[in-house]
Amino acid sequence: MWPNTLLALAPFVASSLAWAPPSYSGFNLRWTDAFGGSGGASPDQGNWNIITGDLNVNNELETCTSVYAAQLLAPCPIQDSSSSRNLQLSGGNTLQIVPWKGGGTHGWTSGRIESKYTFTPAAGAVTRVEASIRFGSNPISAKQGLWPAFWMLGNSIRNGVQWPGCGELDIMETVNGLLTGYGTVHCDRAPGGICQETQGLGKSIGIPNQEFHVWRLEWDLTSSNWQSQSIKWFVDGQAYHTLTGGNIGNQAVWNTLAHAPMFFILNMAVGGGWPGNPNGATQDGYGAMMEVGYVAHYQRNNMAAMKFANGNSSSPETEYPNTNAPVAPEMMMLLDKEAPSISANTITRIARRFFS
């Protein structure tokens, strides 16, 4: 009976674990949302600000909606708060952001969320952020005007610093359903400036299909020389764009991208200057959606500390000078839950296993 019971339960176990963020050797998971919850429910408002109303940016057409009208965060009045169908949990551990025709101010509604969680890439370490994302199954010919994105803004924009001086890192954008992903940085001033605004500094990569792929951004701040530090873009582990402090050439501007607090954004825009507006063939609904399996923030272990535990202090400690970095209270709570007390003997034994 037990083998048959286990076989029967296996699909349900696999489903419940399908979108747990992966573990990576040498990295600690600092924060994640894997979008668990009942189908049709709102994403966790402890983690996300749900943006509503007309954003009035980029000539976009969508009105962002949410079932929670009280969460009015956009500057314009909410147009449609009667349904969560633009922004909802699937019930299968994913988030669905779905554009629909026929509502809002300009004939389309969609969804956008911004994380309440902020973090600063750790000095002297490697910081990784990523999300697993797929797109709806409508044909490419039916996606004119659709613009899904996973990106970050400098938290200073919430304190009055104007774009692009706040810094922006676009981890994934696609337009019009085309099988091309874009990674871009915006910075300094507009128009022109270091990041050639309003175009930004970016590169693109082809993707094989509209199924789930992992989009990643990685800061390597292990060098004490800011010009040698880097930000790198990946899809499914393949790097396709790298930007260094030397490329930026201005330490203050580099700091807005690599040494300042940032927050996550997930949204599905409709129309705008880049993709253009939808046409008569553009279809809405779940076949046009962006679906997200998880969002995660990792930091590479402090390898210098582990070497020291093994009695090997030959590596310069300045490679990992992050021991006194301030940690936000909410992060401390997360770390306390995920990092139980470990004895010095255990640390030494682990270090010897990896470095002996």
Fold and architecture overview:
The chain is 16% helix and 32% strand. Strand 12 and strand 13 form a beta hairpin. The strands form three sheets. Strands 1, 5, 6, 10, 15, 16, 17 and 19 form an eight-stranded antiparallel β-sheet that branches. The protein has two domains: 274 residues, Jelly Rolls (Sandwich); 53 residues, no CATH class. It is of the alpha+beta class. The chain contains six helices and 19 strands. This is Glycoside hydrolase family 16 protein. One of its GO terms (molecular function) is hydrolase activity. Keywords: Hydrolase, Signal. InterPro entries: Beta-glucanase-like, ConA-like_dom_sf, Glycosyl_Hydrlase_16.
This entry's quaternary arrangement is: single chain
Order of helices and strands: HEEEEEEEEEEEEEEEEEHHEEHHH
CATH class of the largest domain: Mainly Beta
- The assigned structural class equals alpha+beta
| Amino-to-carboxy terminus distance | 47 Å
Number of domains: 2
Give the low-confidence spans.
1-18, 67-82, 304-356
Q: Mind summarizing the main beta sheet?
A: 8 strands, antiparallel
Stated plainly, the CATH topology of the largest domain is called Jelly Rolls
Look at the structure and give the mean pLDDT.
80
Radius of gyration: 22 Å
Strand segment tally: 19
Write the layout of secondary structure elements.
Blueprint: H1 2-17, E1 27-33, E2 48-50, E3 53-54, E4 62-64, E5 87-89, E6 95-97, E7 100-101, E8 108-110, E9 112-119, E10 126-135, E11 146-154, E12 168-173, E13 180-186, E14 201-206, E15 213-220, E16 230-235, E17 238-244, H2 245-248, H3 251-258, E18 262-270, E19 290-300, H4 303-309, H5 329-338, H6 344-355
Parallel strand pairs: 4-8
Antiparallel strand pairs: 1-19, 2-9, 3-4, 5-6, 6-19, 7-8, 9-18, 10-15, 10-19, 11-12, 11-18, 12-13, 13-14, 15-16, 16-17
